[in-house]
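Quick one:
INPUT:
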């Protein structure tokens, strides 16, 4: 590239950034701050020469660990449950620091150690804290040229908001690292996601993570399957799939596998495509904002031209639809409450079955482990050892059962919730047919994959019987029994303690799952009612605009129409920029 063409490219880039800021200004004039915010955010990042490489895929693929390994810092939370609740951006900085933003507020610096408080599912379930953005600045050479790595919530998570957060971020993606696994290599939802991303970006890298957990033959079959399916779905030449173990690289152990090739591919992307990726991000942002603004302009025009009587008739019909929907939701709420009570009773019955099954097995295991204890321990020490064993065994029994109960409750709740979501989606379809300008701001559908949105609050309850015997008399008794080698009573007490642990904690598990069902129901209720509330707001706004326009008279209407035509032409011209 010559210096002249390079300068021309910089000038064109500056013009298009200015276009984004101008579109943001126009959106603000219309009161469409959500459109203005997108325009300003896009302009800010392309002005800084930043492009987003998103890490996407099914939950538990190890995306967060992969990004930690790339920047050689364990900064993103990882765990045994889906942990990423909001997209998190990792970008270059001279020092390691993080910042968070809520809504349209200013950025607030936070300690890196506090990142999990904002992005983990445990501490910010389905983004209830309303985090609009979280950025981590890392002094890593891989990020110096403007590449930003984005950790996205996993698809297919039992936490329904996670998938929605990833899909909402897709329009901002400039390139993607698709993380797959060996079992299964690619889910149907992942394929749909990859196809959606491929429709807007050309650069996709595919990584088979956790290669250390699969045999060579399992990896070969998985990679071959993934390449064939991706080639057919994307209509491209079969993709290269890099086999890596991010955890091994982060911990600096084990074979490197395809890790160096994967990093080299990212470096090649930076060298060859950084400028074009920023340019494409600018154009996508302009197209997206322009089309949204044109819809707002058309909405204003219709409000000016439509007879007020027609608007009032349509809004009256829509209010009737709203009233019918509210009545249906109340009726369905009664049925949902009954279903919730049925599920609570079923959970109680399942707990009884669990206790019958677990207590005998746990008691037998405690007896077997007691036989392995050293014979020279004194009585009090022996009691403490048995009580610790009882706690370990109770935890081992309760952990898998908690997961089993959560799966059961999730599946049962989803069946019940589907009736609620069907009602909500039918309501949204009726709204879309009403033809009221502004309803495009409402969601197209209610999330039909409702799981247990509330996070687990279960904590194992430790009964205070471990540190020492409960009384001086028991201490003396244990000393005597230990000296005589008579430990039968201590063993019996240990089995009773184990039974008590199972009894108390299984009740807590049941209560935890039951409360998660109740909270999920409340969240679903709020979502449907929130949509109703938004619809009322949109309808009132449309009617107010129409009345204002009609009240101002014909000259004012004509002047307003002329202004709208001018703005429409300006926005249309923004779609034919210097790169077209």
């Amino acid at each position: 590239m010559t210096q002249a063409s390079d300068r021309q490219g910089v000038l064109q880039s500056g013009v298009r950034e200015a276009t984004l800021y101008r579109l943001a200004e126009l959106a603000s004039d219309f009161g469409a701050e959500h459109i203005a915010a997108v325009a300003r955010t896009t302009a800010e990042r392309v002005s800084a020469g930043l492009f987003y490489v998103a890490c996407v895929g099914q939950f538990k693929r190890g995306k967060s660990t992969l990004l930690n390994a790339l920047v050689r810092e364990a900064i993103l939370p990882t765990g045994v449950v889906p942990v990423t609740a909001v997209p998190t951006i990792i970008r270059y900085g001279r020092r390691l620091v993080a910042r968070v933003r809520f809504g349209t507020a200013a950025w607030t610096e936070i300690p890196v150690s506090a990142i999990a408080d904002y992005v983990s599912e445990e501490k910010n379930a389905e983004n209830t804290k309303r985090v609009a953005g979280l950025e981590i600045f890392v002094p890593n050479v891989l990020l110096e040229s403007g590449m930003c790595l984005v950790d996205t919530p996993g698809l297919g998570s039992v936490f329904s908001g996670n998938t929605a957060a990833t899909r909402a971020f897709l329009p901002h993606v400039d390139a993607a690292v698709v993380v797959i696994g060996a079992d299964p290599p690619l889910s149907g939802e992942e394929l749909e996601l990859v196809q959606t991303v491929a429709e807007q970006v050309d650069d996709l890298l595919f990584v088979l993570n956790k290669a250390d957990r699969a045999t060579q033959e399992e990896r070969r079959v998985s990679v071959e399957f993934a390449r064939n399916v991706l080639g057919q779905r994307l209509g491209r030449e079969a993709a290269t799939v890099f086999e890596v173990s991010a955890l091994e690289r982060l911990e600096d152990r084990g074979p490197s596998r395809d890790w160096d090739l994967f990093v080299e591919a990212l470096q090649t992307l930076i060298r060859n495509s950084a400028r074009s990726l920023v340019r494409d991000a600018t154009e996508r942002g302009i197209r997206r904002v322009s089309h949204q603004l044109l819809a707002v302009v058309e909405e204003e025009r219709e409000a000016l031209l439509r007879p007020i009587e027609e608007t009032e008739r349509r809004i009256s019909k829509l209010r009737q639809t709203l009233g019918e929907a509210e009545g249906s939701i109340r009726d369905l709420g009664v049925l949902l409450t009954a279903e919730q009570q049925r599920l609570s009773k079923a959970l109680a019955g399942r707990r009884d079955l669990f206790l019958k099954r677990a207590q005998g097995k746990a008691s037998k295991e405690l007896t077997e482990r007691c036989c392995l204890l050293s014979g020279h321990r004194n009585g009090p020490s022996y009691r403490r050892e048995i009580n610790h064993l009882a706690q370990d065994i109770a935890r081992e029994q309760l952990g898998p059962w908690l997961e089993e109960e959560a799966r059961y409750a999730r599946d049962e709740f989803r069946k019940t919730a589907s009736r609620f979501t069907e009602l909500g989606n039918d309501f949204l379809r009726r709204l879309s047919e009403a033809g009221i300008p502004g309803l495009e701001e409402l969601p197209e559908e209610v999330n039909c994959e409702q799981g247990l949105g509330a996070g687990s609050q279960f904590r194992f309850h430790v009964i205070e019987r471990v540190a020492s015997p409960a009384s001086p008399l028991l201490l003396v008794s244990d000393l005597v029994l230990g000296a005589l080698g008579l430990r039968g009573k201590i063993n019996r007490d240990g089995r009773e303690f184990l039974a008590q642990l199972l009894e108390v904690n299984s009740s807590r598990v049941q209560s935890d799952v039951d409360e998660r069902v109740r909270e999920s129901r409340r969240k679903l209720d709020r979502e449907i009612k929130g949509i109703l509330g938004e619809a009322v707001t949109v309808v009132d706004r449309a009617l107010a605009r129409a009345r204002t326009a009609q009240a101002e008279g014909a000259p004012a209407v004509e002047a307003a129409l002329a202004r709208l035509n001018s703005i429409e032409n300006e926005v249309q011209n923004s779609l034919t920029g210097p790169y077209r």
